[in-house]
Amino acid sequence: MGMIKKLVKRRWQRWIGRRIPRADVQVFSQKNIFILPTGAGVVYGVLLLIMLITGINYQNSLIYLLTFVLGALFVGAMHQTHRNLSGLTLSMVRAGEGVAGDDVPFSLRLSAGKDAGLAMRLSVEDSELDSVHVSSGQSRDVVLPIPSAHRGYLRPDRIRIETRFPFGLLKAWSWLRPASAGIAYPRPLAAPEVLSQVDDGSEAKSEAKVAGQDNADLRPWREGDMSQRVMWKRFARSGQMVVADWEGEQGSPHWLDFNSFPGTDTELRLSYLAWLVSDRVQKGARFGLNLPGDVIDPDTGPVHGKRCLRALAVWGEKPPREQDTLAFGTRKAVDDIEQEAAV
Amino acid sequence: MSGMASFLKARNAADSPPVDSIPGAALLWLIGSFALLLLPQWNRLPWWLIAACVVLAGWRWLAQTGRVRLPGRWLRTGIMLVLTGVYVGTVQGRFTVDTAASFFVLAVGLKWLETRSARDFYVLFFILVYLSAVNFLFQQDIFWALLAFGAIGCLLIGLQILNAPDLPDSMKSGWKRLGLLLVKTLPVVVLLFLFFPRMAPLWSVPLVSGEARSGISDSMRPGDISNLAQSSARAFRATFGGPAPAYRDRYWRGLILDHLDGETWRQRDAEPFQRPGRVAVDGGIGPLASNQYDVLMEPTDQRWAFSLEHSIAVSDNVFDAGEDLFRFRRPADSAVRYRLAAEPGRVQASQELSPAMRQRNLQLPEGSNPRARALASELADAYSPIGVVNELMTRFREQEYFYTLRPPAMPRDGIDALLFDEKRGFCAHYAGAATFVFRAAGIPARVVIGYQGGDAGAGDEYLIVRQYDAHAWVEVWLDDRGWLRVDPTAAIAPSRIEFGLREAMAEEGSFLENNLTSPQRYADFAMLQWASLQLDRINYHWQRWVVGYQGQSQMDLMSRLPGGIGLRELGYITAGLVGFALLVAGLVSAFAMRRGTRQDGFRRVVSSWYRLCEQVGVPVRSGETPGVLADRMAQARPAIADTVRIFARTVNSHYYGSPPAKQADQDAQRLKRLLKTMKRQLRRDQQPVSRTSQHD
């Protein structure tokens, strides 16, 4: 039973994947809009049947007429509900960033075509945004909170957009399958008072080449490189994406170091570091971040803090590939994996 | 007591989730629709039920505004039990469609207190839709029908608000959307209405109503018909194939009362019992022959049909019941149309009156009205039967008899009092008295009741016969001439027979004196009369063509279309229609989509550029600007470097400049040309586009 269910589910998902390719922009048309009666719509159909029988039995023309009017209205409503969604463009403006376990706000843009899109409901798993209206030819930006499960990349498999307008008898829906992923920072945990005087960490020392800004290692951009490390100025000049690999100086009190918490679990360390970063930013202190394989030079300010948090969030994580059919980093994704493991 | 109250309150608090999950405006439309749907039933429902509905709906509205709370479970159950108890007490075990309908209303009323969620809202929506269908069982006038459709409209507006509560200007746009929807679906509705096969009832349900209808009944006491004279309700309408008979000849026979029981005239043989069932409501199809006439009768819940003298049945929903009377096969519980033909030359079936019939029509109760009997024997001694009749009519004509709607009470020996003392009465008094005298004189006689008269409707299309045209007259048997109509009213108040009750009562001023709301009362206001008749005409055609469009009418219409369409073909047509409508809806939306994408031809050109990029081996990365992509493409294929850069610039300026629509079209055209050039350049580049790397 479970096997069949899983098989069907996988088939279904593959089919959806073909219909709705992963992209940050989705234009809805009859190719990718699904439409079905709601529960109320089904009851409505039964009611019409009962009315028809009443009309036949009492030979009452007006009941016939009423039944036909309401029946035709249902078909009209189907058209209307479909049109409400079709022509609409849903695009991901910015995949959000937030703290793991919280809802991460994703910015989405709805642009209506010729017809207005009324009473749209956007939802991801158990988070939803109700009653979004876009007049025809207009755009509207909304923020949809997406529940995250753990730190790292966060990408819902599908963002559902649904409308039941005008009568709630039919629902038309489709999905945006975003290509870009948001980021969930490690959940900050108050770190034990350790100053990152890392003179005892021998392996760290041997690994860390003390290197100044001058002899930064320049290399071409590779998949997976943080965009912050691209030398954008150089890119603007030459059009070539060059990445600077710096190894910052270590051991100073300005450095927040991955290795400062020996014997601690990796995730815990990252949580401590996240807390420390926020703490430093709040105090306005100047600090750098030293992660194995990723070093961020000391700096101050919230922008720098964000950058550090991002580095913490994705450290050791692979960005989701485009073809991945499953959700990534959302609560449901985690549940699914656990279920799979249980089976 | 206070403990009880606080307990109730606590339960309330626990039981009642906030009621704000339904938008107030939506609720208001729902309540409005409920009110509209109660209107047609106002005189059918018990007063307490209407009051209860008002209170319950009002309660729900006050709860919405936050002024009161909705009752908790206990209070709600209490209210339900009380109202159901009152209902059971009221109906006293009678089960008719009427009581079922009022139970339905009660259920709707109670549901108001439980309407908390959107789901409840839908439940009420469904119930109210069905309530409007139930209303159609009782009221089929065009005005009530429009009202019911208006109520349905309100419901649908309510649904729209429920589904988009914060939409600005929701009412106006809601009506507009609904109107457009209705207009677009109208052709399908009309075709379905015409072609949906009108099947016979699946099972037979009588529509027996507990309420007494106004109209003539099968017994007559002297004062009876004058009650009807206060009502201007329509009894029936008649359409003639040829010219309508003169006013004085418009005697619509309904019943023969041949048995005097004390003061009351009855039928000697009660109407035979008939299984209840539905009356066939449409009879008579095709154009009327010159001697035929159609009668569209209002429901009477009785089996008798009204006919002019010497008629024969044409439509098969009436049959000849003997004595020149016609009957339906089932009680007329809805408006019925039937067709008869006048055959004045037809001789009566038997010119012989059987001894049993003679005896029956000479029956009189023992020992009442001695003076009338004395008068009868005096006349019988002096004259032949026809002479007796003429003499009595002369007496009515020449002596001071008055035709009045305000007769005095004549409690003892009423016929004597009428003939010799008071000399004031209405048609029922005189018809009864005359029959008594004829019988006492040995002439077989009987009372006939029905209607006399009928005024032209708007445009002279048909006659309207109203309840105040109800009339009673006499028929006597003369051996050489058969049954002969004798109308004492014609002798006493000829204007009643020539022009109708209004003229006859002009002096007395009693015409419809108790009926202030009847438009017929205000004959002096020409506008009012005109409007009333126009409304009646609209209603007539509504009844005739929409409400009365049933099996026979449908078959008649279909027989005029080519192709011999039967019930089975109608079924096919209906199925085809539904499929066709769905197909058209699909095609229209597909077409609209295509137009939509054509208008956005821009996007299409850009995506075909993307395809071209893929073909030449430059993968499109998401999030890349057109400029960057163009650069990469230029690097890969220097031959098209310039073209592709111009292309990218155009795309950029289009995206960031948000140009007007016309400009956008030009841009798209330009891009198309550029794309063509690019392809040409690529071909000329001697490096054929690799077909193997092509994937889309």
pLDDT < 50 runs, ≥5 residues of chain A: 196-215, 247-251
The counted number of beta strands of chain A is 17
Report the span from N to C terminus of chain A.
11 Å
What structural class results from the helix and strand content of chain A? alpha+beta
Report how far apart the termini of chain B are. Answer: 79 Å
Rg of chain A: 27 Å
Number of domains of chain A: 2
Strand order of the largest sheet of chain A: 2-11-10-6-7
Task: Categorize the overall geometry of chain B.
Answer: elongated
- Element order of chain A: H for helix, E for strand: HEEHHEEEEEEEEEEHEHEEHEEHH
Instruction: Detail the poorly predicted runs of chain B.
Output: 1-19, 688-696
Strand order of the largest sheet of chain B: 8-11-6-2-16-15
Q: Note the beta-strand portion of chain A.
A: 25-35%
* General form of chain A: elongated
In total, the number of domains of chain B comes to 3
> How is the biggest beta sheet of chain B arranged?
6 strands, antiparallel
- What is the number of helical segments of chain B per DSSP (H or I, 4+ residues)? 24
Quickly give the structural class of chain B.
alpha+beta
Average pLDDT number of chain A? 81
